[in-house]
């Protein structure tokens, strides 16, 4: 299938590792011009070189950007527009908020989760959409978690903030459908990333259960019997954020190996 992504301008935030890097790599394979951002320049440089080497696509760019910083997000978008005068695809990806129980979370934790996971998407969309309107269309995919469908124990911040991102997705999809801007959210289940490892370690610490037992329990809860891979997750995201997708908008897709039982 031709995803119609050759030479399209794509921004993947949080693109230096994990799911973001996997998505950026998949777009690069499709011939897109890919920008990645994150807070860590060393990781960005390494991801930039790795994506070029693995895909043969040299149209890969990066810029340091803290997604809690509105001025930094503005600078990132300015750099993209200055070089290309357009943006075709926006992938909003930011690291998940810390795990923990409700009474452990103070105002700073709540404010940080809001800024990192919801306000960052608001800001990038607000900057990108006028260009997408001007050029006759665009695609936006907001990355979330399976917590948008079913609450996850010890993840009160994610359970509370992520559904807000889906609410934003649904609203933008309806408001900008007339401009051929399709907006969807893709939620990650148990994908084999550093984030998954960190959550397992936190759970082991909180419960006093051996880490290996926690990991075995996590895998056993997945009907497919294994963690997903960033590459598998990326394939779904890239289709939603492609121009072969012409009629799917306002939707929430979980990539979870069948883990979530909620309808």
Summarize the structure.
With 263 residues, this protein is of the alpha/beta class. The chain is 48% helix and 15% strand.
Blueprint of the fold:
Layout: E1 9-13, H1 18-29, E2 33-38, H2 41-55, E3 60-64, H3 70-84, E4 89-92, H4 107-135, E5 138-145, H5 156-175, E6 181-188, H6 194-207, H7 211-220, H8 230-240, E7 252-255
Parallel strand pairs: 1-2, 1-4, 2-3, 4-5, 5-6, 6-7
Helix pairs in contact: 1-2, 1-8, 3-4, 4-5, 6-7
Report the helical percentage: 40-55%
Oligomer: single chain
Low-pLDDT stretches are none
- What shape does the CA trace take? globular
Level-1 CATH class name of the largest domain: Alpha Beta
* Cα-atom radius of gyration: 18 Å
The portion of residues forming beta strands comes to 15-25%
By secondary-structure content and strand pairing, the structural class works out as alpha/beta
Mean pLDDT: 96
- Helix/strand order, N-terminal first: EHEHEHEHEHEHHHE
CATH topology type of the largest domain? Rossmann fold
The N- to C-terminal Cα distance equals: 30 Å
Biggest β-sheet: strands ordered side by side in the sheet: 3-2-1-4-5-6-7
Q: So, the CATH homologous superfamily of the largest domain?
A: NAD(P)-binding Rossmann-like Domain
Biggest beta sheet summary: 7 strands, parallel
Tell me what the CATH architecture of the largest domain is.
3-Layer(aba) Sandwich
Pfam family, one: adh_short_C2
Protein name: SDR family oxidoreductase
InterPro entries: NAD(P)-bd_dom_sf, SDR, SDR_fam
Organism: Savagea serpentis
């Amino acid at each position: 299938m031709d995803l119609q992504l050759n030479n399209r301008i794509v921004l993947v935030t949080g693109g230096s590792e994990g799911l973001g890097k996997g998505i950026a790599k998949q777009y690069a394979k499709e011939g897109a011009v890919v920008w990645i951002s994150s807070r860590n320049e060393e990781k960005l440089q390494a991801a930039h070189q790795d994506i070029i080497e693995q895909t043969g696509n040299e149209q890969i760019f990066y810029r340091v950007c803290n997604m809690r910083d509105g001025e930094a997000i503005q600078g990132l978008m300015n750099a993209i527009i200055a070089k290309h005068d357009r943006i075709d695809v926006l992938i909003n990806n930011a690291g998940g908020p810390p795990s923990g129980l409700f009474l452990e979370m103070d105002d700073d934790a709540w404010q940080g989760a809001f800024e990192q996971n919801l306000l960052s998407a608001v800001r990038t969309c607000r900057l990108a959409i006028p260009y997408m309107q001007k050029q006759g269309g665009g695609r936006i995919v907001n990355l979330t978690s399976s917590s948008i469908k079913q609450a996850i124990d010890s993840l009160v911040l994610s359970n509370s903030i992520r559904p807000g991102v889906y609410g934003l997705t649904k609203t933008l999809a309806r408001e900008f459908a007339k401009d051929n801007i399709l907006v969807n959210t893709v939620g990650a289940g148990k994908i084999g990333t550093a984030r998954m490892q960190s959550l397992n370690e936190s759970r082991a610490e909180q419960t006093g259960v051996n880490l290996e037992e926690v990991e075995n329990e996590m895998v056993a809860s997945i009907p497919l019997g294994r963690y997903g891979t960033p590459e598998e997750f990326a394939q779904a995201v890239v289709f939603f954020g492609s121009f072969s997708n012409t009629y799917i908008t306002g939707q929430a897709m979980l990539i979870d190996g069948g883990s979530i039982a909620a309808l």
